[in-house]
Specification:
The structure holds two protein chains of two kinds. Chain A is mainly α. Chain A has helices at residues 13-39, 49-75, 81-90, 93-109, 118-149, 158-167. The chains are: A mainly alpha, B mainly alpha.
C-alpha cells in the first residue's frame, strides 16, 4: 500500500502549480471562446475578430488561472507564493514573446513587409509595455506586502494599506 | 499583457484566501517509499506517455486538419459547432485516459503521480507538434527559412498551449480520482 506517499507534495511545486494554472487559463479561454462562437456572440468571418475576442477572453481568464494555481499551491503547502503568481502569469506569454521576437527578427532580416520594424518593437517594448507591466507588478507586490506582511516600503502608499486593512 | 499580470496576481490572492485548509484523506509518511523498478516493457512510462497522447490525438485528428488548412492555407473555417463537440470529446478522452494510466501506475506502487499525470494529459501536445511537421512536409508547399521559422515557431507555441491545457485536464481528473479512491481507503 502506498497511501502514505500519494499525497506527498511534488518536486518543483512552484512550476507545477504554475503550469496547472496556465493550463486552466488556456482551457477556459478556449471553452468560453467556442461557446461564444456557437452562441453567436460575434461574427467569426470579420477579419481579426477571432483573435481580438480570444485575447480578451484570455486576459479575463488570467484571473481564473491565478486562482486555480494559488489554490493548489496553498493546498500543497507551498511557500513563497508570490513567485507562484509570477510564474503562472509568465509561463505561457514569455515563450510566446520569445518566439515572436525570433520570428520577427528573421522576417526583418528578409525585409518582409509583414515584419514590424525593429524600432517599433523596441519603442513599444521599452516605452509602453515594460513600464506599465513593471508598475503593475510593483503595485501588486506592494498590495501583497501591505496585506500580508504588514510592511510598506513607500510612505506615500501607507494610506492604501490602511484602507485595505480596514477592508479586510 | 498589461491586464493579464495583475489579474493573475489578484486571482492568486483570491484563491489563497478563499481556500480552506486541505485535508488529504491519508497522512503522508516521513520517509518517501522507494519506487520499484519497472518490470515489463509494456508498463514503461514512455510507452504510457505515447498511449496517453495517441488516443486524444486520434479524436481531434480530423479537426486539426481543417484548422491547419484554415490557419496556414487559404480555407475559411466555418464548422465551429463541430469543433466545439470535438473539444468536449477531447476533454473527456484525455481525462479518461489519464485516470486509466494513473490507476496502472498506482497499481505498480509508483507514487510520484503529480508530474506524470500532467505529462500524460499533455502528451497530445507532442503529437500536435509531430502532426505539424507532417503537415509542413507533405500537405503544404511552404519553403524558405522565413516560412519555416514562422511556421515552426508558432506551432511550437500552439503545441505548448495544448500541452498545458490538456495537462491541466489530466491533472485535475487525476487529482479528483486520487482523492476519491484514497478517501475510500480505511487506514489507522
Amino acid at each position: 500500500m502506498i497511501h502514505g506517499d500519494v499525497f506527498r507534495s511534488p518536486p518543483l511545486l512552484n512550476f507545477f502549480c504554475a503550469m496547472i494554472g496556465a493550463g486552466a487559463q488556456i482551457f477556459f479561454t478556449l471553452l468560453l471562446l467556442l461557446v461564444a462562437i456557437v452562441v453567436g456572440a460575434f461574427k467569426v468571418t470579420r477579419r481579426g475578430a477571432l483573435l481580438t475576442n480570444g485575447l480578451l477572453i484570455f486576459t479575463c481568464c488570467a484571473f481564473l488561472g491565478g486562482m486555480i494555481s494559488g489554490r493548489l499551491f496553498k493546498q500543497l503547502k507551498g511557500k513563497n507564493w508570490a513567485w507562484n503568481a509570477v510564474f503562472t502569469a509568465s509561463i505561457f506569454p514569455v515563450p510566446l514573446g520569445i518566439v515572436f521576437m525570433i520570428v520577427n527578427t528573421i522576417a526583418w532580416s528578409y525585409n518582409s513587409t509583414a515584419a514590424l520594424p525593429f524600432l517599433t518593437i523596441l519603442v513599444s517594448f521599452f516605452f509602453l509595455s515594460s513600464p506599465f507591466v513593471m508598475t503593475l507588478i510593483l503595485f501588486s507586490f506592494h498590495l501583497v506586502n501591505c496585506l500580508y506582511l504588514g510592511g510598506s516600503s513607500f510612505s506615500i502608499n501607507g494610506c492604501w494599506c490602511n484602507s485595505w486593512k480596514k477592508f479586510y | 499583457v498589461v491586464l493579464h499580470f495583475p489579474l493573475t496576481v489578484v486571482g492568486a490572492i483570491v484563491g489563497r484566501n478563499f481556500t480552506e485548509e486541505y485535508k488529504p484523506p491519508c497522512r503522508t509518511n516521513k520517509v518517501p517509499r522507494e519506487i520499484p523498478q519497472v518490470t515489463s516493457w509494456w508498463k514503461h512510462p514512455t510507452l504510457q506517455l505515447f498511449m496517453a497522447g495517441f488516443l486524444p490525438f486520434s479524436a481531434i485528428y480530423i479537426e486539426l486538419h481543417y484548422i491547419f488548412a484554415s490557419i496556414w492555407g487559404h480555407k475559411i473555417y466555418t464548422l465551429f459547432g463541430i469543433l466545439f463537440i470535438a473539444y468536449i470529446l477531447l476533454t473527456i478522452v484525455t481525462s479518461c485516459i489519464t485516470i486509466a494510466l494513473l490507476y496502472f501506475q498506482l497499481a505498480r506502487e509508483d507514487h510520484a503521480w503529480w508530474w506524470s499525470s500532467l505529462c500524460n494529459g499533455g502528451a497530445t501536445g507532442f503529437f500536435v507538434f509531430a502532426y505539424s511537421i507532417y503537415y509542413y512536409l507533405h500537405r503544404s508547399s511552404m519553403d524558405g527559412l522565413l516560412q519555416l521559422s514562422s511556421y515552426f515557431g508558432y506551432m511550437s507555441v500552439v503545441s505548448f498551449a495544448f500541452f498545458l491545457m490538456l495537462g491541466f485536464i489530466g491533472f485535475f481528473s487525476a487529482f479528483e480520482f486520487v482523492n476519491y479512491i484514497y478517501g475510500a481507503v480505511k487506514t489507522d
